[in-house]
Write a structure and sequence with these properties.
Elements lengths: L14 H16 L10 E5 L13 E4 L8
Antiparallel strand pairs: 1-2
Length: 70
């Protein structure tokens, strides 16, 4: 946890849980098990459109890690 994070046991979600949730989300979009690695981009992914969003828009999802010092 960096010095700018606020830790509250009721709301804190671990980086491991975030990674698991992101992988599950992307797996659902792609209809196959997907594990995102840092520095990689997956796509294009096409999802069903709707009234206001075209299904022709390609989606790219990536995962990066940054170090920020304030």
């Amino acid at each position: 946890m960096n010095e700018n994070e606020i830790y509250r046991p009721q709301t804190y979600i671990s980086p491991r849980k975030n990674t698991q949730d992101l992988n599950n989300f992307v797996s659902c979009l792609r209809n196959k098990e997907t594990i995102l690695e840092y520095g990689n981009i997956i796509g294009p992914i096409h999802v069903p459109g709707g009234k206001n969003i075209s299904s022709d828009i390609p989606i790219f999802i990536g995962k990066i890690k940054t170090d920020v010092n304030i």
